[in-house]
Backbone:
């Protein structure tokens, strides 16, 4: 009898040890999509660490953060992935995230990035994307953009709901400083419409509604590789482009904190880096051989990036300045 | 009074309980939000919000006037052209506008009226002239709102036209009234209750419009209060401010609901008989009416054609194999079926209860009738009073308080949102019919002493049948195309078709997204045209 119990106990032990830990990652929907980076990353990391990755896609990265905030300490999330540096500071203030010592020496970033909580995993540059078949006279600066002919139109995203929209505001602010409001007044007649998110804006551009759309320097890579179209290009601006560095952090409340930190380190590995370019259409933060299409992209020499603290402190004022300037 | 109550107990109680339940739910929602707000001080509602409010009211007013105007013209034309070829299909098609996902409609309209739309393309090829980006701004908002609401209004108004007894038309003819006089003295009085009740619904719809206002508005100056709430929740995570704004919206909706429930739906929209008037409309009127129908049909169908043309580019084989697509379709389908059934049941009980308080010989003269009438009207219009995002947020916070698996909460939230969304329309369709059957059969039913169940089976159901088909189709499609609440709950485990579509759009897959839009459109249109037909043909057999 005792033998049987002993065997049973042993069996349950074996079964339990076979049960893989599940690491839950909240992110934005495109990252979690079946065609996004999530499945490949889950496979690579899961095999290496004998665990299961579960990606929960929320409608946007800010949405994912809000979901965690609403869930509070009870959240199932171990990691939040996909915020950018301009909103990460706001996330840090919630006190929900665990500190992480980042080894910056291995990073391949155009700017120095130092943070004690959030870890970068990819980056790209904001840029105005256009169709070479339709637009011949391509603006190369904000000044040129504002002085385009009257019927030249762009689509941008609302900074209150989209990280891309906020990025553009910060870009203009970095270039124009106190005169940003005045610049927006000049640009306003060229703004066809302002959408809630990147998706609608890009959709309008592809429908031919606007001459340019605010997107990324890496957007053309998608059209080259997936659609074999070379007519979609990003306009190079002489004074540099504002960067978007996407970051992730582990949650203090995570029950798999060690594994979560392992994942944050994995984000700087070549295995992770090789997945990013063709699934998230961005540059990885570790050295890897980029696909050929990326060679055809405009890679800005200078990345403009406002300090996260400063963004957090001034965001409201910058948005209000923008609102006042473009409301006719 | 009490004898009166005893007689209609079976019809009062269920509806009043449901109405109370809905109000308790709304209260819980606000209470949850109230307890969740930070202690830090919130910024007061600033002048920008007042500006938004002022513009939103103005925009909603214009949209309502336009929608009602166009809707009446269309219904008038359709009513006087009963022999128009394809009329019944057109009527069904027009009324589907309401349930088409707004984002898809917006892209369809852009395909026609946009800067690179068909009108501008034709202008450029033929005359080397483009109208430019006229669509974006107030014009676009009004155009889209008219597109969505005029067609919806025309359906209900058509019923009102058809409920005018032929005798009145004969009288008008013998008095030699002009077309205009006929409209003023014969038709308008019959339309008035419908105009007012539909008008207030349309006003609230335009007041809370979100996707359309954002994509076609062009400038933040044209944002609605919903956008401000969105900003408060998403960007600033300021629940207190969101709550404040939501209360403003609640107040405005309450005023409107009180206003609109004042009109007793005296004349029901029940079709009287099918005998066609023995004379035809004069030739010039015939031309005008046919032109109106044709013009509106073009205006309505062309954007749908754009959606079809765009959608055909998609690689259907690719996502028919995607397990996520299949899962999303199944989830969407099940949710839509369940919520449409719930909607019909709740709407029936609510409108059944409501007529007790509007009909004088029932309880209409009792002291509390006005109060109950309001209570029911308000509970039926909750969705228009509570911003979708606030509802989603409230649900989410509740799900944190009361431990239950997340999937159950997701289903619950989605079902509630879908039912509440369809209720105002379901009530505006079923209410007048129920009212009319009561007026007609109450004396008979009461004298025969029919039980509540018998009454349903013999009196109400035969008359409700065709409306039931419409309401079922309406709430089915509403639920299928909704994205609102799923945004907070959606995940790989619980994804719906609109969610899938949005995911595709978010990762450059515009062609596939257009394909999913096409699939949604085909499902919605076929359900919308076939389902009511199914119900109607059975009615014809029965009679």
Residues:
């Amino acid at each position: 009898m005792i033998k049987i119990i002993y065997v049973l106990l042993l069996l349950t032990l074996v079964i339990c040890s076979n049960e893989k830990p599940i690491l839950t990652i909240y992110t934005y929907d495109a990252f979690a999509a079946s065609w996004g980076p999530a499945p490949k990353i889950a496979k690579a990391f899961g095999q290496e660490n004998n665990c299961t990755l579960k990606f929960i896609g929320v409608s946007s990265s800010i949405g994912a953060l809000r979901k965690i905030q609403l869930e509070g300490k009870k959240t199932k999330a171990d990691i939040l992935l996909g915020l950018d540096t301009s909103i990460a500071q706001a996330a840090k203030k919630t006190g929900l995230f665990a500190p992480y010592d980042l080894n910056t020496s291995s990073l391949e970033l155009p700017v120095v990035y130092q943070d004690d909580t959030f870890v970068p995993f990819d980056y790209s540059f904001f840029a105005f994307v256009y169709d070479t078949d339709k637009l011949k006279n391509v603006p190369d600066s904000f000044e040129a953009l504002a002085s385009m002919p009257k019927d030249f139109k762009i689509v941008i995203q609302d900074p209150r709901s989209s990280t891309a929209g906020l990025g553009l505001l910060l870009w203009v602010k970095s270039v124009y400083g106190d005169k940003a409001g005045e610049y927006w007044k000049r640009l306003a007649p060229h703004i066809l419409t302002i959408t809630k998110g990147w998706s609608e804006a890009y959709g309008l551009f592809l429908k031919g509604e606007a001459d340019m759309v605010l997107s990324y320097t890496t957007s053309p890579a998608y059209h080259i590789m997936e659609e074999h179209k070379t007519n979609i290009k990003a306009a190079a601006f002489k004074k540099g482009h504002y960067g978007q560095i996407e970051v992730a952090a582990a949650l203090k409340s995570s029950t798999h904190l060690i594994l979560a930190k392992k994942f944050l380190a994995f984000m700087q590995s070549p295995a992770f880096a090789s997945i990013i370019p063709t699934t998230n259409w961005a540059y990885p933060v570790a050295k890897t051989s980029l696909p050929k299409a990326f060679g055809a992209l405009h890679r800005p020499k200078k990345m403009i990036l406002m300090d996260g603290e400063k963004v957090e402190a001034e965001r409201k004022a910058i948005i209000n300045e923008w609102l006042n300037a473009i409301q006719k | 009074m009490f004898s009166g109550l005893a007689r209609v107990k079976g019809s009062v109680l269920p509806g009043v309980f449901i109405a109370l339940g809905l109000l308790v739910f709304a209260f819980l929602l606000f209470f949850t939000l109230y307890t969740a707000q930070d202690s830090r001080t919130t910024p007061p509602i600033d002048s920008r919000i007042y500006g938004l409010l002022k513009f939103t009211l103005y925009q909603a007013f214009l949209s309502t006037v336009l929608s009602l105007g166009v809707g009446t013209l269309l219904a008038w034309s359709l009513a006087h052209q009963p022999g128009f070829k394809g009329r019944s299909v057109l009527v069904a098609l027009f009324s589907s506008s309401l349930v088409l996902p707004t984002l898809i409609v917006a892209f369809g309209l852009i395909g026609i009226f946009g800067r690179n739309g068909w009108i501008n393309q034709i202008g450029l090829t033929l005359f080397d002239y483009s109208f430019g980006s006229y669509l974006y701004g107030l014009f676009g908002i009004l155009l889209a709102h008219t597109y969505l609401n005029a067609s919806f209004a025309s359906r209900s108004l058509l019923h009102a036209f058809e409920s005018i007894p032929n005798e009145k038309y004969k009288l008008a003819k013998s008095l030699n009234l002009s077309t205009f006089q006929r409209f003023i003295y014969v038709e308008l009085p019959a339309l008035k209750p419908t105009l007012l009740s539909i008008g207030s619904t349309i006003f609230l719809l335009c007041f809370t419009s979100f996707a359309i206002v954002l994509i076609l508005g062009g400038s933040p100056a044209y944002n609605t209060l919903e956008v401000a709430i969105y900003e408060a929740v998403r960007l600033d995570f300021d629940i207190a401010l969101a709550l404040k704004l939501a209360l403003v919206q609640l107040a405005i909706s309450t005023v409107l609901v009180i206003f609109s429930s004042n009109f007793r739906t005296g004349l029901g929209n029940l079709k009287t008989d099918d005998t066609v008037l023995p004379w035809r409309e004069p030739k010039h009127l015939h031309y005008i009416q046919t032109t109106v129908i044709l013009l509106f049909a073009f205006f309505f169908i062309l954007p749908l054609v754009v959606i079809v043309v765009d959608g055909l580019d998609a690689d259907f084989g690719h996502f028919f194999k995607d397990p996520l697509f299949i899962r999303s379709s199944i989830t969407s389908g099940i949710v839509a079926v369940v919520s449409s059934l719930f909607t019909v049941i709740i709407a029936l009980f609510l409108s059944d209860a409501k007529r007790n308080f509007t009909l004088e010989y029932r309880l209409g003269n009792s002291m509390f009738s006005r109060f109950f009438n309001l209570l029911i009207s308000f509970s039926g219009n909750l969705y228009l009073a509570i911003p979708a995002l606030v509802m989603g947020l409230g649900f989410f916070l509740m799900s944190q308080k009361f431990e239950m698996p997340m999937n159950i909460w997701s289903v619950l939230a989605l079902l509630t949102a879908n039912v509440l969304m369809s209720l105002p329309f379901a009530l505006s369709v079923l209410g007048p019919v129920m009212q009319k059957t009561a007026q007609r059969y109450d004396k008979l039913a009461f004298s025969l002493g029919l039980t509540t169940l018998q009454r349903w089976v013999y009196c109400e159901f035969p008359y409700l049948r065709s409306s039931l088909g419409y309401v079922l189709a309406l709430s089915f499609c509403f639920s299928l195309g909704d994205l609102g609440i799923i945004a907070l709950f959606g995940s790989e485990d619980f994804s719906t078709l609109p969610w899938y579509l949005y995911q595709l759009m978010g990762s450059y897959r515009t062609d596939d997204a257009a394909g999913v839009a096409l699939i949604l459109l085909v499902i919605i249109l076929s359900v919308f045209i076939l389902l009511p037909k199914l119900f109607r043909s059975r009615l014809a057999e029965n009679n």
Notes: Residues 45-224+253-306 of chain B form a domain with the MetI-like fold fold (CATH 1.10.3720.10). Chain B touches chain A through 52 residues (CB under 8 Å).
